Amino acid sequence: MKKGTIFSGMRPTGRLHIGHLSVLENWVRLQDDYNCVYGIVDWHALTTSFEDVQALQNNIREIALDWLSAGLDPEKSIIMVQSQVKAHAELHLLFSMMTPLSWLERCPTYKDQIQQFGQQGKEINMYGFLGYPLLQAADILLYRADHVPVGQDQLPHIEICREVARRFNHLYQTELFPEPKALLSQVALLPGIDKRKMSKSYGNDIALSASAKEVQEKVRLMVTDPQRIKKTDPGDPSVCVVHSYHQIYNVDEVEEHAEGCRSAGIGCVACKKRLAQKLEEVLGPIREKRHELMARPGLVDEILAEGSKKAEALAEETMAQVRSSMGVKGPLEG
Question: Tens place of pLDDT for every residue, the chain, 334 residues?
Fold first, then answer.
């Protein structure tokens, strides 16, 4: 028997990188214990990329390929595209009628991201961006999810979702919506190869779909202890990007490599070579699965269409009750 229902999603901004892998591994584990709906939330992508939409459809397909290659199973989970289930927009609109503006304005990520994007010369102070957490609440509550796997930074958004559920249930004297609980996942926070935050825009990421040669090159460029000029110089693993990756992907040997660094018993070249081998053990099977999927034209689109159809059926069950509670009718209701 399943423990409950989960909704989680990602914005389609292109191929995923190794920093996303721990999230996907968690999703794969959860699909055995929960009824999972995993959404490619393309409307959310528009809140910050509304001026650049040429790659959106390709990005949707790329992220779907990454999900399936990492182990998400359409036989176990519903894998869908947000914009293909119009009820996401309808529920967001209806929620906007009853949600105080102050709830959205106080969200800590709102002002932080406006400032962050502003420093990049990008204006995102739009109605859609302000309403991002409310659309997220609609995404979750549309499937009456009672659990949401998130990182610590998303907890304020989950709390808004819980407040919306409580307010709706109170206003309309119903118990339609559960108050979703956060499933805090232990997400590995990997730095980029240059020690900055990992980002495709910085070019410091390792794509999940990277070839063995690309992985080797990325590892070769990883920043190490700047004080270690020669192999015979002792190093400090705590300031080395390579060590950060060994801690996650080479647990059995990490102390051996750390001690070798401190004692100058192992050089950076050898340390990097071993890391590249360990990363290939992880990424190789994902890459092979991706190639299998790409060799079957139309399969990914079929999976997304079928998943969205299943999601739409679940969503309509919820929306029938929402409309009834709020005194409005659907398109096919007399």
Answer: 889 999 999 999 989 999 999 999 999 999 999 999 999 999 999 988 888 899 999 999 999 999 999 999 999 999 999 999 999 999 999 999 999 999 998 888 777 777 777 677 777 788 998 999 999 999 999 999 999 998 888 888 999 999 999 999 999 999 999 999 999 877 678 899 999 989 887 899 999 999 999 999 999 999 999 999 888 888 999 999 999 999 999 999 999 999 999 998 999 999 999 999 999 999 999 999 999 999 998 999 999 999 999 999 999 999 999 999 999 987 766 5
CA distance 92 to 161: 11
Where do the H-state alpha helices sit in 31-154?
42-49, 56-70, 87-96, 101-105, 108-119, 127-130, 132-141
Which residue segments constitute the domains of the chain, with CATH numbers given? 5-190+298-326 (3.40.50.620), 200-292 (1.10.240.10)
CA torsion through residues 130, 320, 5, 300, sign: negative
Q: Do the Cβ atoms of 57 and 99 come closer than 8 Å? A: no
3-state class (DSSP) for residue 201: helix
DSSP letter for 192, please: P
Query: Residue 123 corresponds to which tokens in the numbers above?
Result: 């204006």
